[in-house]
Amino acid sequence: MIFEFLGTMILILLGDGVCANTCLEKSKAKGAGWVVVTFAWGLAVMCGVFVAGPYTGAHLNPAVSVGLALAGSFDWNLVLPYIAAQMLGGFAGGVLVWMFFKDHYDATPDGDTKLGTFCTIPAIRNKGRNLLSEIVGTFVLLFCILAIGNKANTPELGLGSLGAFPVAFLIVAIGMSLGGTTGYAINPARDLAPRLAHWLMPIKDKRDSDWGYAWVPVLGPIIGAAIAAGLYILVF
Predict the structure, then answer these.
(1) How many separate domains does the chain show?
(2) H helices of the chain, where?
(3) Rg (CA), the chain
């Protein structure tokens, strides 16, 4: 659980870090763009995998833990402890991003920009289609994880068991191809945990934490992972 916590914390520190780095005022990386964001998120996952992979399989994502359990590749008794560790790690990562970029948060007047460095905000708010985006994105994530790890390729399933580099490019591909609608949370610990950090931290001139949308990047990934697990069982 310690390594699942640390891996998720590193993931969010670097992932939300690139959002802050490219969006907040007076950052030298401001305006670097979507390609930088998607590559950095892929590399953030890679770094989290290096930390947790040898010890936990590096799920780093409640949807992955649930999906692997549904696919029969992970012990259900470990699902809730993994999720607790992931959520705590995501919260800690969000707090660290705020501490690191505090001067830049103070210099940024726009509340939406600040919120967007912690959690996802849809480009066009249509919760039904936003939910579909998160379902499809997470389906691709877990189905590819299961497919890459099929049969004797890996002894244990999880992000870490696939190797850090394939997973990094999988995240980049999802972000570049499917991420523009919602910001591709595809991970409740990536969205809900830092959203809690935004809600609790004394951020200057912040807006509300958009709790009316918060269920979408939680439920969508769980549904997408469940569909991926079911299809994997059916076809493999």
Answers:
(1) 1
(2) 2-23, 34-56, 62-70, 79-100, 102-107, 111-116, 127-148, 164-178, 188-200, 216-235
(3) 17
DSSP string computed for 176-218: HHHTTTT-----HHHHHHHHHHHHHS--TT-----TTTTTHHH
Domain range enclosing 229? 2-235
Q: What is the CATH number of the domain that holds 35?
A: 1.20.1080.10
Give dist(CA 182, CA 132) in Å, integer. 10
Local confidence pLDDT in tens for the 236 residues of the chain: 999 999 999 999 999 999 999 999 999 999 999 999 999 999 999 999 999 999 999 999 999 999 999 999 999 999 999 999 999 999 999 999 999 999 999 999 999 999 999 999 999 999 999 999 999 999 999 999 888 776 655 555 566 555 678 889 999 999 999 999 999 999 999 999 999 999 999 999 999 999 999 999 999 999 999 999 999 999 98
Token pair 């699942």 in the structure block, residue: 4
In the block, residue with structure tokens 């891996």 = 7
Distance CA 125, CA 128 (A): 9
